[in-house]
Amino acid sequence: MFKDGIQLYPDADEDVNDFIELVQQDLIGCCGFSNDDEGYKQWGQNMYFNCSVSDSMKDLNKLACAVPESCCKYKDGEIKNLLCGAGVLNKSPSEVSNQIYTRGCLKGIGDIIAQNSLVFGIIIAVVLVVQMTTIYFAKNLIFQIKQQIRKWRYNHNR
C-alpha cells in the first residue's frame, strides 16, 4: 500500500496520502519506502515528482525532481515550506541530508526495532508470562470444578 501510494500520491485515496505523510514526517522520519539510505529517490517514480520533465516545463512544474513536504526536516517553530524538497532527487544523500529525510521507511522501521529491541523483548516476555499465568489458573479452576463435581456425585449417590 505504501509503495503504491508513493506512485499515486497525491491522487491516491486521502487516507493513503495521510498515512504516507504521517509515517514519513511524524512517526519514523523517513522518505520513500525502500530499505536503504536513499529512500527519497523512490519519489522519482511518481509522475509529479520525477525528473523526466523537460527543462521548459520545470519552470511550470516546481515539483519536478522534488519530494513531498512530509520528507522535509523542520526545526522547532520553523514555518513549513511546501517546496522545501525541490530539486533533491538528482542530488546525493550527503548534499540533502540537512534538508530532508533520506532513509527509506523500511530502513527506519528496522532502525527503530534495533534501537528498542530490549524494550520489545521485555514487552513480549511480560505478555507471555501473563498468558501462561492465565492458562495455569484456568487449568487449576477446571481441575477444582471437576473435583467438586466428583464429590457432589459421591455424596448424592450414597
Automatic annotation (TrEMBL):
<protein>
    <submittedName>
        <fullName>Tetraspanin-33</fullName>
    </submittedName>
</protein>
<dbReference type="Pfam" id="PF00335">
    <property type="entry name" value="Tetraspanin"/>
</dbReference>
<keyword id="KW-1133">Transmembrane helix</keyword>
<dbReference type="GO" id="GO:0016020">
    <property type="term" value="C:membrane"/>
</dbReference>
<feature type="transmembrane region" description="Helical">
    <location>
        <begin position="118"/>
        <end position="138"/>
    </location>
</feature>
<keyword id="KW-0812">Transmembrane</keyword>
<keyword id="KW-0472">Membrane</keyword>
<dbReference type="InterPro" id="IPR008952">
    <property type="entry name" value="Tetraspanin_EC2_sf"/>
</dbReference>
<dbReference type="InterPro" id="IPR018499">
    <property type="entry name" value="Tetraspanin/Peripherin"/>
</dbReference>
